Fold each of these.
Amino acid sequence: METKILAADLDSLKEAARLIKSGDIVAMPTETVYGLAASAYDTNACAKVFKAKGRPQDNPLIIHICDIDMLYDSVEEVPPLALTLAEKFWPGPLTMIFKKKDVIPYAVSGGLDTVAVRMPDSKAALELIRLCKVPLAAPSANRSGSPSPTCAKHVYDDLNGRIPLIIDGGECITGIESTVLCFTDEGKNIHILRPGAVTAEMLGEYASVTLDGAVFQKPADNAKVLSPGMKYKHYSPKAEIIIIESDNEEKLAEYLNSHIESGAYAVLYGNEKNVLMPRIDYGNTAEEKAHNLFSALRKTDELGAVRAYVRSPEKDGIGTAVYNRLLRAAAFRVIKI
Ligand code: AMP
Ligand code: MG
């Protein structure tokens, strides 16, 4: 199969909708990362998504909606707090988990009775959902385990020959996947399963917020986790990733300079001085780091890196999300200097 890339205009979106309505799958841009979309009501199409990605069957898909009616079509109960959050953060990088209706197949929910829902803040994605007239189940459009795709080329590099069409909407603005949360205490409070650009601090204005233990820790083998995605190795380029935590730039440079060897790279903020190791900079602010993290990880592969030392991001705000992805890319290896 030849994979086409088309700019995100109305004609291309119509072609994408035609493919999806006929049971096929298409990569679409969103503000977080590129998604691999299928009709959320079509078990066979969703199976194609798992196959193209090589995704474990028990890792559920997020469904993407374009209006609130689609939420009520897909889920049993919507707590008032969810509506408040929807009003405030949708369209945007927030995914909420609800009890699913029967129209959502277990292929989407990974066998669970719940379903994760979000309204993306991307004109192209919203228009595509509108044209399809059904919610679109869409995980990140990468091969399972590799860094998430933040531009059409990343999708092509991973899925060329496995999907018919990529809609090219340019670089994703946020660059990191959505915040995933579930409700606790009969819908009154919030438990974050995956951090994202809608931060714990932002959500804390509306309810009390807890962070799942799996956000910063490796779940034990066979542990029952609330968010199945958290138990898999994720976001990894071929190079070995090691997180370096340090506030002391002199010591950081000293450490990196004493570890220079063929294939070793440093992934840094950009303002560090005296580092002699070849470097890729991923940004000064936490937002820049979120935007650039996955392309920096992919860049290590392009450069043929064997090992990459990545300077730890901030651990608050959106930095929490960047650190969460990096921990998994690094298989939880952290060196503190
Ligand atoms: P991705 O498709 O790569 O953005 O990953 C989707 C994330 O949402 C994974 O971490 C899933 O485990 C999580 N997720 C999706 N649906 C559910 C659900 N019903 N319950 C808990 N986590 C979910
Ligand atoms: Mg993913």
Amino acid sequence: MKRDFLHITDFTSAEIHEIFAKATEVKKRFRNKENFKPFIDHTMAMIFAKPSARTRISFETGFFRMGGHALYLSPTDISIGKREAVKDIARVIARYNDIIMARLFSHDHVLELARYSSVPVINGLTDYNHPCQIMADMFTILEHRGNLNDLKIVYVGDGNNIVNSWLRLAQRLPLQFVCACPEDYLPDETTFQDARKAGLSDVSISHEPKTAVKGADIVYTDVWASMGQKDEADKRKEQFKGFQVDDAMMAATGKESLFMHCLPVERGVETVDSVVESKASIVFDEAENRMHVQNAIILKLFNK
Ligand code: CP
Ligand code: NVA
């Protein structure tokens, strides 16, 4: 039976820990330029309906370094769901390739792709979630702290795909997670309720970012207008006043917190240059770890 990675909850807690251990191992191998090629003669189709830097580069480089070949399919190549039905392209690609990575608008499309593909499908971001990112982020936190105990993460900004993935992670690993967002920009209600019901983590929503960040180990933010919402950018700048992660917001944690952002960052909007460039910022570690954690995920999907 092939396995997909579409949501963080597709893995058990034990598997997530296993993936982090594997990521540590593959990261070391990469840094030492060891010959590690479990995917010789394998190909990965990467479907992009949205732009990307990190996701494309990390998957393509990572898979190549593990011996495989990755094909970049740009937004105009496939036009998923427009030029051709999702269920058709799923079966076609699976005849040529060993694995599919897809970055799409519609989450239903990635679910359909996985349903019809006979090879594993990895979700490289949809409007609903971004599981690879949050796996890499938690691994980055583990590297920096040495453990994941008593972790308070405060996300400040739009209750978007990044937040939905944190809420899924909160169903697998215990943490205190606060989403501090404007009232009209909440995360997905069902996902939030599922995280609450799972009873493993303490998840909450706040509309008072300065108060919410008190005691935070991690302050995390993301763009206020995600891909597909860029025409709302000006309106959102008005509605997100008070939610910028600036130096005063970082100081309001009252402790030596770390700053995280999935990137790309809009400096002067959701955060500022001095925070991104500060000692607290671990944004480039997050970016690097995308590759190592994704490689560990691919290895897991192939039982390697
Ligand atoms: N963080 C992230 O997914 O970056 P890209 O959109 O550049 O892939
Ligand atoms: N929320 C952002 C994340 C980018 C990696 C977006 O969807 O555009």
Amino acid sequence: MKSTIYDYIVIGSGIAGLSAALRLSKFGKTVMISKNSLKSGSTHYAQGGIAVALDKSDAPSLHYQDTLEAGAGLCDSEVVKVLVEEGLERVKELIDIGAEFDKKGSQFDFGQEGAHHRRRILHAKDETGKEIERALGTRLLKEPNITFLQNTMVVNLCIKNEKAVGCVVLKGSKYERLSAKATIIATGGCGQVFSHSTNPSGTTGDGIALAYDAGCLIQDMEFIQFHPTTLYTGDKKPISIFLISEAVRGEGAVLRNIKGNRFMKNYHDLRELAPRDIVSRAIVKECIKSGSNHVYLDLTQISGDLSVKFPNIYRRCLIAKIDLTKDFVPVSPAAHFLMGGIKVNEWGKSSIEGLYSTGESACLGIHGANRLASNSLLDGLVFGYRCGDYVRKNENDLNENWDVGMVFNGVNSEKLAEFQVLKYQIKEMMWKCGGIVRNQQLMQEGLDFLKSKEDCLNTEYSHIIYYELKNIFCVSKLILDFGLKRRESRGGHFREDFPETDNLNWKIHQSTGKKMTPFLN
Ligand code: FAD
Ligand code: SIN
């Protein structure tokens, strides 16, 4: 097996991976790895913007308050403080390296989104993630110390003497061994474990499954955020469902049931701008009442030219023969964001020495049980930087004296088709059993289904489809296990058999880990 030594390994090229790699590449040989290209993570698709208290009339303390309120009692207040305070400096640096956000005259044109009590969202039209990724990526790829491996999947984390020493990647038909002093997982979330998701196709929870297999502690996996408004496409189920940004509701778009009546006033004082979990469940209730699979989003009353304000959404809807200026847009909720993940501290340090995580794959309690809109890009920016900073100041010794017994095992088309079917079945099952409304019976049914399929993955095949399926399997099990144990409803975890929030018994985080997998010396 080919073997390469770096100082630092960063797995993932979204905002968190880019921020960490940018910090680290100033100090040592850094490799950033992406399963596909620079553009393959959720970051590329982020629409609404990045929340930051930059406006003169705003303050980090107000942003902090809104974050805590949305988080439904489970935010770690210390890390939220770091997020909103250090966010100011990181966003200014982002602007300094060339990220361009929309302005009105000489002032930033702050947008509004759900559960923010004031306008504080910096955006680049409705394609903010692309702009941030462009700015960070352009800057990073100029660094002499950086190597960017694309179309390369990390399939194994290597732990020796209880320390992370590197990873194994699959590149085409070959395994390669990468050693480093520190390994940072920035592989994003796991939206693709559900049949309905806004996340791009590779968002299969890889980093979380790899870390779990390596013996790392995993936290808060029951908390999945379902975005209320994605373009409803009827029977056609695209892999990744197009998002209609919350920013349009911030500009005055309203929700209507299929009879054309507004309904959010019956569910929350903030109406269309209530926290996402509340809006998503309100939509589910309206759908059940009317026997429909969707509601409508009405943008017709937004002032100004929609094709200029939201060019990406405007274009995509036109392709679906929907004219935003005249037509209501059929929408329904879809899995969007994972609040849980690899348990880390405020520097991204996991429970395994030398192994770190940042961005959506990490869980440090910033988002509690429900993330505030546009706080995820800020999370990746702030904590990616902090993780990079900590790693270079607290390095392990390099250990290149390890190996793993990985033998290439090709897979035929029949087996691949079998894996595709199983992947489809798990995603459908997760939508039904671990979706917006859960209960004991459904989650148990989901776990029983997974148990019945366990043997299908016993043989390891050297193919991305096999590894993604294995990861989806692992993460689905974690979500259902965590969900079954939490006997209450809170934020992104709603149980119809325990519909109330139980602060007395459940204002706590859950975490789990398993024994280290043995590696050959
Ligand atoms: P990602 O950007 O998802 O990047 C993950 C990276 O890991 C990718 O490069 C991928 O190729 C790589 N990877 C994964 N597995 C492997 C593996 N096994 N081996 C090698 N590489 C691997 N948040 C906001 O704050 N504001 C918004 O406006 C906003 N809009 C959104 C719109 C959409 C449609 C979506 C899907 C999300 C949105 N979010 C938004 C959420 C936010 O975009 C994500 O939470 C954030 O971008 C995650 O960044 P990340 O760096 O952690 O991961
Ligand atoms: C959106 O634009 O609605 C998504 C914003 C987010 O996920 O924070």
Amino acid sequence: MNDTAHMPIGIFDSGVGGLTVLRAVRERLPGESLLYLGDTARLPYGTKSAQTVAAYALAATRRLVSFGIKALLVADNTSSAHALDALRAEFPGLPVVGVVEPGAAAAAAASAHGRIVVAATESTVQAGIYPRAILHSRPNARVTQLACPLFVSMVEEGLVEGTIAEQIARHYLDASFSGDAAADCLLLGCTHFPPLAPLFARLLGPQVAVVDSATTTAMVIEDLLALRRLTNRSGRPGTIRYLATDDPERFARVSGVFVPWTLEAAEVETIDLG
Ligand code: DGL
């Protein structure tokens, strides 16, 4: 095993939601160390322009690279939509994986009749990258997009079930999932939406596949590490280190919505991206 294989995988998100992707990677690759950076000071990315998001993603990646990482996983959908080309251009030797293509492939495979709805942030919807990626895998699919900004704040408040959550979910989803042309697959194109998956599944019923990108993204990173001979084969469990650009107390508290383990504020290091 070469020295680089011992380095962590860098995982970047605009905030805490990317922990759903970290969890999937942890479950699939327990021997890999993970360095997670949540840019909580600048969240939300989902309402910002492509240029701003790309600049933020570059700044975050520069910092992760300065710590030493062997690969980068962009858990943030909005950055995956706008910044992958810029990241690959600035770090040509660094394997970079985003969540859009794995999520699109999962939806294309899970949809019974190819009638797919992508729920995402406003900025991801504007990029139009999910429909392109889904149509690449399944050219005759019918793909529609829904910008659902309220889901982000709702989940940060821990509102994942109950009357308010249900009413907001219905507000966004009812029109696309009713009538003769109802969709049969909901792709969660935002880090904050997986905690709402049980609610969506209950409201939409068994004929609708609710899909997120975390598991397929973990599979992509596993294959990529193997291909580049970067898999950590030490046999020891990997470590997890958390970095945030704002209040560690809030990061630790909100993390409970996304992962089933408890995080203490003292485990979260605060950094400044300038
Ligand atoms: N992480 C963002 C995404 O997946 C959602 C939160 C935000 O808007 O920053 O698109």
